[in-house]
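Here is one chain, start to finish.
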Amino acid sequence: MPAIISTSPRPAPQPRAFSSVRADGGFKSYSLSLFGSHSLSGDLLKGLSLFAAGSYTRLRGGLRRSLIVSVAGSPNQWFGVIGLAYTFQSAPVG
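Its structure:
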């Protein structure tokens, strides 16, 4: 029966576009995150509320200087979300 899959003992060549980077020791990034909620019904424990969350992350050192970040990304990463939430009041336990 003929072989369907063949392998080579040589390692595959690394692409030059995204070569490896020698990262420094220490923290890879630092972040700041915030979350807030506002009750539209007057009570945070039941009813409708509006919420928002956001986060900022900054890459440091070797990760910030890597080729993949400079070509296809940014050392500054932002995230944000807003939404509506509804909380049901549960029956007391016990």
